[in-house]
Amino acid sequence: MNVGIIGYGKVGQLRHRVIDRHLLELDVVALCDPNLTGTGYGVEAIYPAWQQMLAHSNLDAVVVCVPNFIAHEITAHCLKAGLHVFCEKPPARSVEDLKIVEQALTSSRAVLMYGFNHRYHGAVQAVKEHLDSGGCGRILSLRGLYGKPGFECDEDAWRVDLVKSGGGILIDQGIHMVDLFRHLTGVEFTDIHAYKTIAPGMCVENNVWALLKSSCGIVAQLTSSAALLKHRFELEVSCEYATLAIDGILSNSMRYAPEYLNVAGPGVIVQRNFVQDMSWKQELIEWYRCIMDHDTPSHGTLLDAINTLGLVEQIYGAADDECS
Question: Is 95 strand, coil or helix?
Fold first, then answer.
């Protein structure tokens, strides 16, 4: 399969490396980025515009790694062209944006998958296995904290532009935690209360605090922040018979490492240390498998994207109401 990558920033380059190292069945033949010059990328062609790349006659699939405000448009056009698409999160600025993707996918036989790679982290997969086994009992509550010292916006100024991004730290990073709440519980949250802060001189939030409740009584507490002293990832799931807590996560930058899982039950505390991040590899392998098997992805579907982004929108709406 011949693959093109649209958007060749940090994530686009990372996806390229993962494909070259781990998916020999895929061959990256084209890149698209207006900032790319010269040679040495190991591809057949480089394009300044994605419309030009879509005319590349031998493409089978594309990996889309672009800002929020154009991801949905590019994804829809690729699907209409019959290309399989892997699109990074966030899928768009809003659920409204995703309507054109939904229309394109309805009339396409291509496979679409969105990149919510945190579902594939070792500690997260272990928590899901514990929960699915039934031994922990019913989920009662979740607590998630995902944050960093501040926006690194020198090269990605669009992230703090509300029109282009659709929001600040919540849609940029906190969306991963929102997705994990939905993934681990298998429910949707409908009762939402939230607050946010906006730093002086900025137009997007640097802090969001949210309290969510599902119709079956599961309560989730979320903190998404770009104002911490250091990078932090914490996810705790409290159940009837056990508590499962993830401390840290193995990101590409390693700023959130190490990654531990603590499982505590009656008289038992077990700690596991995860030393390899296989999430990027496993996610792309799942996409390729679905293409070969004409199957629907088990994670990162369009419905996942709509529901997760929809919950992000509801949190923003609740925060605006509380702050008004």
Answer: coil
| Residue 19, helix vs strand vs coil | helix
Distance CA 226, CA 230 (A): 10
Q: Which tokens go with 133? A: 């086994």
| Full domain range(s) for residue 236 | 118-278+309-323
Single-letter amino acid code for the residue at 298: S
pLDDT tens-digit profile of 133-189? 999 999 999 999 999 997 654 457 888 899 999 999 999 999 999 999 999 999 999
Rounded to the nearest integer, the mean pLDDT of the chain is 94
Secondary structure of 100-162 in the HEC alphabet? HHHHHHHCCCCCEEEECHHHHCHHHHHHHHHHHHCCCCCEEEEEEEEECCCCCCCCCHHHHCH
Sheet holding 232-239, edge to edge: 189-197, 207-214, 219-225, 139-147, 232-239, 243-247, 259-265, 268-274
Question: Would strands 259-265 and 243-247 be described as parallel, antiparallel, or unpaired?
Answer: antiparallel
299 within domain boundaries: no
- Residue 154: per-residue pLDDT: 45
